[in-house]
Amino acid sequence: MDARVGDFIEVYPDALSPAQCAALIERFEASSLKAPGAVGGGVYTELKHSSDISIGGRPEWQDAEAALNQAMLGGLLRYIRTYRYALIAPLMLQIADPETGAPKRLEAEDFDRLDDARLAPIVQHIFRPGAINLQRYTAGEGGYPYWHCELYPRDPQAETLHRTLLWTIYLNDGFDAGETEFLYQARKIAPRTGSLLIAPAAFTHTHRGNRPEGGDKYIATSWVLFQRAERLYGGGG
C-alpha cells in the first residue's frame, strides 16, 4: 500500500517513452486542428490559456489515442491495486473465484490472486476512457491558473458526473515551473517526460496548472469514467 495514505495522487514514470512523447509533440505542432483551450463554460483565457486538440474519435489520431489509453490502463491497474476500494466501494462486484471459478463477491484480498490479465477486464467493465486532449501551454503566458476540479454537472447525459479519476501524461520537461498543483494536498507535481499522473476527479483534489517558464509545456490529458448505468445494470438505472 502506498505510504501517503489520504493523498490518492500517484505518478508513474515512463508510461510513454521519450520517442513517443516527441512524436506526439511533432504531430501536435503539424496539425491544423489546434484551438484555444476551453473550460467547462467555454473559452476564458484568464482561467485557462492553452492550445488544444481533442483527438477522441478522429481517425488520423486513432493510433495515438490507442497508445495513450494503453499507457493509462497500465497506470490505472497499478492505481487500483493501491486503492482497491476505488473499484470495490462503488459497486458490489461479482467475479469468478480465481481458484475455483465459482461466483463470489470481489474483496480486497482477491487482488493478490488476480494478475493484470484477469484484473484488466474487471476494471474495463466498470470504467471507460474519456476523450483525450493534447495541450500546449506557451512559456510565460500559458497555464491553467484557476483552481478547479473535474467532476461537475454540465450536460443532459451527465458525462462529466461519470468522471472518477483524472490523468495526465507529461510529454516534455526542460522548463521551469509548470507544475500540476493540488490545493488541499499542498503538493506540486513537476512534469517529467513520459510520466503519468492519476488522481481523483472530485473537489477533494482541486488543482491548477502552473505557468511554464523558459519553455513550452505539452501534455496529454483525460479522465477515467464509470460505465453508464445501462451497460452496468442493463435497461437504465
Automatic annotation (TrEMBL):
InterPro entries referenced in this protein's UniProt entry, alphabetically: Pro_4_hyd_alph_FE2OG_OXY
Pfam families documented for this protein: 2OG-FeII_Oxy_3
Keyword Transferase set for record: no
Keywords: Oxidoreductase
Domain Prolyl 4-hydroxylase alpha subunit Fe(2+) 2OG dioxygenase: 133-224
Keyword Oxidoreductase: yes
Domain of life from the UniProt record: Bacteria
Enzyme class at the top of the EC tree: oxidoreductase
E.C. designation(s): 1.14.11.-
MF-aspect GO terms: oxidoreductase activity
Protein name per its UniProtKB record: 2OG-Fe(II) oxygenase
Organism: Coralloluteibacterium thermophilum
Organism classification: Bacteria, Pseudomonadati, Pseudomonadota, Gammaproteobacteria, Lysobacterales
